[in-house]
Amino acid sequence: MKSALTIGTILLLSACVPTTTPTTETKPSTKPTAAAPKAPQVTRSASSGVSAYKRVAQRVEPVAEAACRSFSRDMPRTFCDFRITVDQDARKAPNAYQSVGSDGRPVITFNINMLRTIKNDDEVAFIMGHEAGHQIARHLVKKRSNANAGALLGALVMAGLGGDPTDGANLGGAIGAQSYSKKFELQADRIGAHIATRAGFDAITGARSFERTGGSNSLLSTHPPGADRFNTVKQTVGQIRAAKAQGKTAPITWQ
Ligand SMILES: [Zn+2]
Prior knowledge:
Keywords: Hydrolase, Metal-binding, Metalloprotease, Protease, Zinc. By secondary structure, this protein is an alpha+beta fold.
C-alpha cells in the first residue's frame, strides 16, 4: 500500500545541477518546456555521454542501494530500488534530479545535455551519488512537510492581513519548500562523496563540475555557492581517507 505521504512526494523533485539558471521544484512530466536554453558547453557526443552514464550506473547503483538500505529498514523495499534514467529531450538545459515514481521507486534522471557536458566518469558518479543522497536523507519527504507548514502559515498570515488565503498559501508553500534547500544540497554532497568513493571513483575530481557551474550566490537560489559544495566534498573525502589509513571504513553521515 502506498501511503498518502509517498503519493505526495511524487509532486516534488530535487533539481540538483545549477547551470545557466538555477532550477527550482518542478514536475518534469507536466512542466512545459521553456524557450530553448543557451547552448550548453558540450564536451562529448550524446552516445558517448550515455555510454559513460551506463558504465558508471552499473557500479554506483548497487553501492547507493546498499547505503540506502542501511538507513531505511523502516521503509518499503521500493524505497531504495533506484531507477536510473536518461531524459533524451535535447531542448532542456543540462540538469540532473531525483524524483519518486508512482510505484514508489526513487528515480535518478540525467538529461542528455547534462551527459554531454560531463567531463569524466568521476563527475557522473559523484552526481549520481548526490542524487541518491537526497533519497537516503529523505529530502523530498522533508520538503513536502516544509511546504505544507509554509502554506498553512502563509494562508493564516494573508487572511489576517485581509488578503486571499490561497495567495498566502501559495507563497508560503513555495518559501517553505525552499527553506532547507541549501542545507539539503550540502547533505546530499556529503552522501554523494561517500557513495562515489565506495564505488571506486574520485569524488573530488567528480565535484569539479562545481568550478564550471559556480553554484549560485543568488538569495533565492536553491543551491549553495560552488566553493561551499566543493569544500564539503573535500572535507568528506578527507574523513574517508583518514579512516581508511586506520584500516576502517568511514560511516556515512550527512549532518
Ligand atoms: Zn541536489
